[in-house]
Amino acid sequence: MSKPYRPEAKAKAVRRRNRFAAVTAVLGVMFVSFSYYFYQVFFTPNVETKGRPTYVLIRKGQSYKAVMDSIDATNVIVDRLSFRFVAKLMKYNKLVKPGRYELKDGYTNRQLITDLRAGRQSPLKLTFQNIRLRDELARKLSTAIDTRPGQFDSLLSSPAYTKSLGFDTTNIMTMFIPNTYELYWNSSADNLMQRMKKEYEKFWTPARDAKRKALNLSRAEVSTLASIVEAEQQQHADERPRVAGVYLNRIRRGMKLQADPTVVYANNDFTIKRVLNVHLQKDSPYNTYKYAGLPPGPINLPSIASIDAVLNPEQHQYLYFCAKEDFSGYHAFARNEQEHLVNARRYQAALSRAGIMK
């Protein structure tokens, strides 16, 4: 016997299919929407620097919230909410690492968080130039890395610490070879000092050591003399080997160096343009008019070119030199005092005509 036709059962079946289709459609839309959002927050560029190099500095022990606030403060994160969402999903709050990180233009949330989690820092470049005094060097080093104020002052002025590196407090500056170095912002002060010692040893190749031994000079003495050569000839590096030759000739003959830059340094007045008799009276081991030999340490951080000028001096018989009266930056050289006095009078007259009296 056939079953009776029941239209209500068929209607229910249709409704069930429709509900299933509707639920499936809604779930499908939700899945697509979630997938799209997931893709957007993870893989769409979210850093916009507008060509401006941007970094975030994270100190040791800094909280996750403080890090997020620091990143927000850079104003380069386009969608901050999505960035924080991804940071939480990737558990960055449990993996904060100190350092200096670049927020690169076009970075996605995932790329940036991956760098931060991995401690993939952006190294900074440290360049030494135009440094005369130890406290200037200490300030330069302190601004390069995350260290407490005064730490480098303490290290550079510590007899015990400088001795551990093979120097003393008067010649420790010779350990710093002017160049550009890559290092990490969260390096410790001692690590930076050890790095500079390593670079110093690398600089002093067997060839350079052989040359300075032939001159009967220590490494520190070479750098100290190079600092004087550099101060004498700042404009024209091609003349430095000749200037170095003059001072080496005077050292061999037991003559005082009588280098004006050492007098300026001894007086601690770098505005001096014309060295006068009053300046020459300064009682200081750096005053090479009063004391024979090299000063106890450098009067600046000499460039590699100046160090090599001392190691490769021009061979000649000159014992004197004086700036040329044309203010070209070059010097007139002399073999004896009589010739030198003629050159000196010309230069002094030129200074007076220019109104340079001190």
Care to describe what's here?
With 358 residues, this protein is mainly alpha-helical. The protein folds into three domains: 55-118, 2-Layer Sandwich (Dna Ligase, domain 1), CATH 3.30.1490; 124-203, no CATH class; 206-353, no CATH class. It contains 15 helices and six strands. It has helices at 7-43, 64-73, 80-89, 109-118, 134-144, 151-156, 159-164, 189-203, 206-214, 219-232, 240-252, 260-267, 277-280, 304-311, 337-353, and strands at residues 55-58, 99-102, 124-127, 180-183, 320-323, 331-334. The strands form three sheets. Strands 1-2 form a two-stranded antiparallel ribbon. The longest helix is centred in the first third of the chain and has 37 residues, at 7-43. The protein is elongated, with a radius of gyration of 34 Å. It starts with 6 loop residues before the first helix and ends in a 5-residue tail after the last helix.
